[in-house]
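Propose amino acids for all 81 sites.
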């Protein structure tokens, strides 16, 4: 069993926010396990000093556009400039 660390990076600056340990029988299995954590953070999978894979944050987790949100703005704030 190999030991890996999956680092969750900040969206701005790419600093390490936290990590999740992963144990797997090789890189391919570790990459598949890491994919389960994809979301609003960029991720990097490492085994000791070796970066195995980098994942961008998932597109489905990105904030909605202003047009998508506009309909949900309370009436008091509509048209305010």
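Proposal:
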């Amino acid at each position: 069993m190999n030991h890996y660390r999956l680092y969750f990076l900040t969206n701005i600056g790419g600093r390490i926010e936290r990590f999740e340990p992963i144990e797997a029988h090789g890189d391919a299995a570790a990459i598949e396990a890491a994919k389960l954590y994809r979301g609003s953070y960029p991720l990097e999978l490492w085994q000791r000093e070796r970066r195995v894979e980098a994942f961008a944050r998932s597109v489905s987790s990105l904030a909605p556009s202003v047009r998508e949100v506009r309909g949900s703005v309370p009436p008091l704030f509509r048209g305010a400039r």
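The helical segments are 27-35, 66-70. The longest strand covers residues 16-24.
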